[in-house]
């Protein structure tokens, strides 16, 4: 079979219909879910953008190693396209993620064909001296509010937003067809059309920057959810910071296109946060609309009969659930670490199923190789998920371990989520936190003090896993002695 992988950057799981959202329109991803297999427990192993792609393309855990995080690929580091080049498989990477475009990082290497779609975010596409952008000023854009002049990040954000405004002016992204997601999906459809008659199987990796900020969707997406009633954002469920009976008219609240990572109350007000969520929701619907173009093209061409389609995301998006927005802290809460994974088999085999296995980003490479009929990689830590998809196997691991910036680690089971700070900030000290699953979906009620034995056992398992990763010996780890709600061993 062929394989198409579609990934998004910064997609909040709570904004997808297939994962319980009832008010945001995502009909095309909902359709993919009804025709595919939905994984309810999918997690990265190393946050955020570049570390996750390393996980996808190597199939290896790297979160305990600072050299395997937000760092360039090593010359001796075998990645997914390297495993395909002499196996009779055509590979292509099509992406508008500016961070992947950075040649010093090496993430564009090895593919038979690479197509970069420029201009997303702060991509240095349009230079400052471009005559078409001479009159552009941040002060003229009400959706951008610079930090104070004495703020150490003032110049950083000034440069980023000036670049964003230049790109927007030249590309005219207020027109839907000119947005990054539209141009990138069209490039993928064109690539598929050109290769329709090719005899070799292919892997197409479609890597979308959206819905990562800046959040500047054109109309009607920008205001599509502006009038949503506050009670559609339940307190504690989506992390709202105002009560349901608040009478704020959000249509009157300024639309913020982008904000620095920071605390609610510092970088934006509570009302601006709620309005930002609605703008973000519109961006998710925009992404879904263009993915529909891809899925419709696959159906019309007959490719859904012989192609495995994977949809996932590299990370979630903190939107105030714990008092901050964007990746302000390496805090491994649900809104950041729980990511979608939907796999549509050729001809819709097993369509409409859900799987409860705990799976991670390291499992994607072994699954792709198996789908292409290739031998497994000796280097991969992950597991082939095809037996789980087909209902032949119930699980591939007892728990998921993950981390971010080697500053915070976490372990996730079906019943518990333990977060363990590794580098403690003396100005903001943190103790391990424990949350019950699945009832405490967004990690609002820390129960570590009431369940010390559970926390201790999970932390010991996590630290043993970290040491096993360093020794490349995770296969030697014993199974987890799970605990029930009372803390008794099972």
Overall outline: globular
CATH superfamily: Alkaline Phosphatase, subunit A
Category from helices, strands and their pairing: alpha/beta
The total count of strands amounts to: 15
- Strand order within the widest beta sheet: 5-4-6-1-8-10-2-11
User: Helicity range of the residues?
Assistant: 25-40%
Radius of gyration: 22 Å
**What percentage of amino acids are in beta strands?**
15-25%
Mean pLDDT rating: 92
Describe this structure in words.
By secondary structure, the chain is α/β, with parallel strands linked by helices. The chain has a single domain (2-397), classed as 3-Layer(aba) Sandwich (Alkaline Phosphatase, subunit A). The chain contains 11 helices and 15 strands. It has helices at 27-35, 49-58, 80-84, 98-101, 154-171, 180-194, 270-301, 334-337, 364-371, 386-389, 452-471; strands at residues 2-9, 37-43, 46-47, 90-95, 113-116, 202-211, 262-263, 307-313, 324-325, 341-344, 353-360, 400-404, 408-412, 416-421, 433-436. Strands 5-4-6-1-8-10-2-11 form an 8-stranded mixed sheet, sandwiched between helices. The chain has a 5-stranded mixed sheet with strand order 3-12-13-14-15. Helix 4 links the parallel strand 4 and strand 5. The radius of gyration is 22 Å and the shape is globular. The two termini are 41 Å apart. Mean pLDDT is 92; it is low at 230-245.
